[in-house]
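Thread: quick sanity check before group meeting

JM: Hey all, I'm pulling together slides for Thursday and realized we never actually wrote out the predicted structure for the chain we discussed last week. Dropping the sequence here so it's in one place. If anyone has concerns about the input, flag it before I start.
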Amino acid sequence: MSKNQPHKARKRFGQNFLHDAGIIRRIVACIAPKEGQHIVEIGPGKGALTEGIISVTKKMDVVELDRDLIPILRVNLFRYPELTVHEADAMKFDFSALAQSGPIRVVGNLPYNISTPLIFHLLSQAEVISDMHFMLQKEVVDRLAARPGDNLYGRLSVMAQYYCRVDSLFIVGPESFDPPPKVDSAIVRMTPHQELPVVADDLKTLEDTVRIGFQQRRKTLRNNYKGVLTAEDFEQLAIDPSLRPERLDVADFVAIANYISRRQSVSH
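JM (edit): ok, ran it. Output follows.
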């Protein structure tokens, strides 16, 4: 069996197999794996990227949902007995269980249809992850890396940047995949902060605050937080209520969330 053996990409799994050897080498160079590092790959497919990494690290864990791909993966990577394949849904997978002996590095060509919820799932386990390198739809990478004032800056940008430093690395065209997707992809590096630059008292309150803030992004903060924050509250926070949500940085959203959660704890 070869890496090119037939396996029809499945739409329901959002499969697009990377086959461009030059791009694979470039991604591996960005990841810069070292022997002995614990790298976990999500959605290894037929093992194109996996082989570039495990040939250096010698051991590796991969999480694959499509059971038909697992025998292909084992055959393609038969020279690496220390490849551990987890047949599982990455959305429900406990990555912290793999980090018993130290932090893990996570890589993957993430399916477009679940990339955002999967990133939120991984961010919730950021304390056991030293870094993440993902291939994603370019627009998702642009949203992750967007800065305050950018059109694409929103909930995903704020939550990702609360936990991580986000670096957009390079673009990958559709021709590098089989089947080719209809959009450009990009490689992103997400490095969880060793110490959070700003700390939310309560993560659920922060998530709710950011979600409410961007619910109607063309409206002002005054409108979006109606019934949650008064004019006096904005004054206390030293935040202009006539601004739109995309003008606020991560620290502003954390300040609002902490103000709300402290007010709730006083009222209880």
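AS: nice. The two ends are 65 Å apart (CA to CA). The first strand starts at residue 17 and ends at 18.
JM: adding both to the slides.
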